[in-house]
Design goal:
With 205 residues, the chain is α+β, with helices and mostly antiparallel strands. It has 6 helices and 4 strands. The chain has helices spanning 7-19, 44-60, 62-67, 89-97, 108-124, 137-146, and strands at 156-158, 164-169, 176-181, 186-190. Strands 1-2-3-4 form a 4-stranded antiparallel beta sheet, with helices on one face. The chain starts with 6 loop residues before the first helix and ends in a 15-residue tail after the last strand.
Length: 205
């Protein structure tokens, strides 16, 4: 799959990769994925780029911004930290080998935005029952694009049985939103994967 990387997505990917190694914080109200405590804080220029990206997101999706205004970017939530690995050697080894599937932690602001986008998309797809939901991948992609999302090649797919699914990186501020068009329709927000990006990796190391 060939994918374009915009400057805004590069900023978000860098922030997501920083967040994978441990819990930490970003500047309050940024809405970006949290940076870990083991690495240096974002430089002023990088922090300004992240803040500017979030501002562009808020202008693009004012209803989401209004619902998440004032959220503090503290206490990120997401995948378990290394200290939370199982104590049983076999289980611990399994967890380590599948660590590439871990998702970056999300600050409350990023979590709020992601969940707001997930609810927005689910409603547009007809709610849980999927009444009036798209029937083809092309139709689904067109509907998501009309809602202001950037749909790249491979972001929308259909299974062999015709079930539709999608994976989106929310423009400018992140995080990821993944969904399936059933019925039932299910949509969830999450951080980028350890290997980078919003698509679940098929293999690791």
């Amino acid at each position: 799959m060939t994918s374009r990387t915009t400057p805004a997505r590069a900023v978000l990917l860098a922030a997501g990769l920083l967040a994978m190694t441990a819990c930490g914080t970003t500047a309050s109200g940024s809405g970006a994925v949290a940076a870990p405590s083991q690495v240096p804080s974002l430089t002023p220029d990088h922090a300004a780029q992240v803040a500017a990206a979030v501002a562009r997101h808020d202008k693009r999706f004012p209803e989401v911004a209004a619902g998440c205004a004032g959220r503090e970017s503290v206490a990120p939530t997401g995948s378990a930290a290394p200290d939370d690995l199982p104590t049983d050697p076999a289980a611990r080894k399994y967890a380590e080998n599948h660590g590439y599937r871990n998702e970056a932690a999300l600050t409350p602001a990023a979590r709020c935005r992601g969940e707001a986008h997930a609810a927005r998309i689910k409603a547009a797809l007809g709610g849980s029952g999927g009444k009036g939901a798209p029937r083809t991948a092309q139709e689904l992609g067109g509907r998501l694009t009309a809602m202001g999302y950037e749909v790249e090649p491979g972001d929308v797919s259909a299974s062999s049985t015709g079930d539709l699914s999608f994976v989106l990186s929310i423009p400018e501020s992140g995080p990821c939103v993944t969904g399936r068009v059933g019925p039932p329709v299910s949509v969830k927000a999450h951080g980028p994967y350890r290997e980078g990006g919003c698509h679940e990796p098929r293999g690791g190391h």
